[in-house]
Amino acid sequence: MSGVVHAFPSAVANTADPLKVGSTRWNAEHLFTSGNIGSIVIRGSDDTLDALSSVASGSFVRSNGLGLVPVYGVLVAADIPDLSGTYLTSAAAAAEYASVFNVRGYGAIGNGSTDDTAAIQAAIDAAFAAGGGVVWFPQGIYKTTNTIIVKSGVSVRGAGRGSAILRPAAGAYAGVVVNGATIYATLAMVSVTRASVASLTVDHATNSTTSNGIAITVDGAGTAAQHCTIVDCEVLPDDSATYAIWNFKGQHTKILFNYVDGGITTSTATAQEGIESFGGEDVLVAGNTVQNVGANGIYVTSDATSGESKYIRIRDNYIYRCKSGIRVAAGTHARSVHLHGNQISAPWEYGIVATIGTGVTFQDLQLCDNSVDGGLEGIRLIGHAAATFKQISVRGNTLRSQTSTNTGALVLSIFSNTAIDNNAILDSASSGMYLATTTSITARGNLVENTQHHSVYGDTCTSLLLAQNSFKSYNEANGDTPGAYFTTTTKITVQNNEFTKGTYEAYGVWALPSCDRVSISDNQVRYTPTFNPVFRNDSTNPEVGLVRGRFLALAATTTQVSLRVPHGSAPTSPVDGDIWTTTAGVFVRVNGTTVGPLS
């Protein structure tokens, strides 16, 4: 390194311009001892530092974003991250940062080959014994061979991702027992209060370490950790069935601005997880980047062991090339799980998937303002007949270029009480919305465009409302498939929608004979060259599918028809307003009297 480091006594440091040496004003940072002798560290303009000499133990160095970090022994360049800060007096520095514990001062070497596990744990234990503090990792590679337990009131901080690296030995940890529970993770906050891990790298990939990365978890008594944070960390997991970042039952947990790379670039059968919250209450997972993970980028799950997942917020994360981007799996009751503003690209299977188990009540599931590019399905919600759904909202999402040819970009199966509003579904290789065995579903204000099958497919649904949607360019490649297609569906209302078809003829809405109580009103169909009526009902009994209310279609021409009602039989109990056709002609029920055949 070409930079020159100078150390000066306090008489120089306290001059009007302590950065000026002779005629040169240096780019400088400040170093202070805990006693009366102050000094200043000056670095060259190339922002590099050579080894320092004559610096007493107990000094402090100002670190960018991390405050003053204590020096133990001789300070060398590797100890100093990117430095910046204001000039403080020696006394102020010593008072403010007396609770900082440098792992080097407890015997950690950080050379990548010496086992630093005991030294790191000793620094954490000392901070805990002092009533809490910051455990500081200077730049280096710290070899670990077993779980390190982070205790209450202790903040573990590194010199930065890629600078302070914890790199365990190969294989699995033996684990550390905490109140009857064996803990397997490189850094674990176990049933603690107000602990944190920040600004370091946990590297399990280099040596194929088959343990979890950073964990917030419980002891043998099942006591939940409280107010714990994992922020600005990089975790590089092995490709085995481990968790890079894990929250087990933690309450008031924050997992923020971390980077996880699982190293898997093609779809495999691995159970590797990126960030998982297993149970927990008031959990915020935000601003993270997760990529190349064999299973789920972010996983929210619960069962009888974890208890309910409550008030979980998954926001503004970027997830790339994982089997599923975000998965929610409720094996027990769940409440207020919100997925907002996440960006998911190139999932191998699903962008967002939720599976709800038998007997589970799921209240307040929000999937809002997320984007999914690619994958088999963009959003997949799979319930159970014995589950209860309340306040389910799918709103403002953008789903693009899903590749399944059998289902759709947005899939609901055995789900109920769901509002699908203001989403954009574009370029699906199958249907836009695929609804199967659903109850009480409303879809309003959505744009579904350029789908290879239907804009909406409904099978065995009850109480389905489509209103104010725009369905464009459905099934352009295959011809006459309708925009909305229903089979074995009861209580269908299609109202105030726009159906726009391009080259091929197709109906706006098609209900098979198995459907009952179909209401079509105030829709508009736009189409080109051929026939394209608004509605088709194949039933031999027109009462099975009724067109009620006002609908708007373009006028018939010599090549186009606005409405087609196939021949059938007269209904057994017609009501006013019914229209049907038989081979004898067209019939209308008016004021209790059947009029027809009309000629």
Structure, described:
- The strands form six sheets. The chain has a 30-stranded parallel β-sheet that branches. Strands 8-10-13-18-21-24-27-29-31-34-37-40-43-46-49-52 form a 16-stranded parallel β-sheet, with helices on one face.
- It has three helices and 58 strands.
- The model is unreliable at 1-97, 528-533 and 536-554 (pLDDT under 50).
- The N and C termini lie far apart (99 Å).
- The chain is mainly beta and 599 residues long.
- Among the domains are: 6-98, no CATH class; 99-261, 3 Solenoid (Pectate Lyase C-like), CATH 2.160.20.10; 574-599, no CATH class.
CATH architecture type of the domain at 99-261 = 3 Solenoid
Structural class: mainly beta
Q: What fraction of the residues are assigned to beta strands by DSSP?
A: over 45%
- Report the count of strand segments: 58
What composes the largest sheet?
30 strands, parallel
What count of helical segments does DSSP give?
Answer: 3
> Quaternary arrangement of the chains shown?
single chain
Radius of gyration: 32 Å
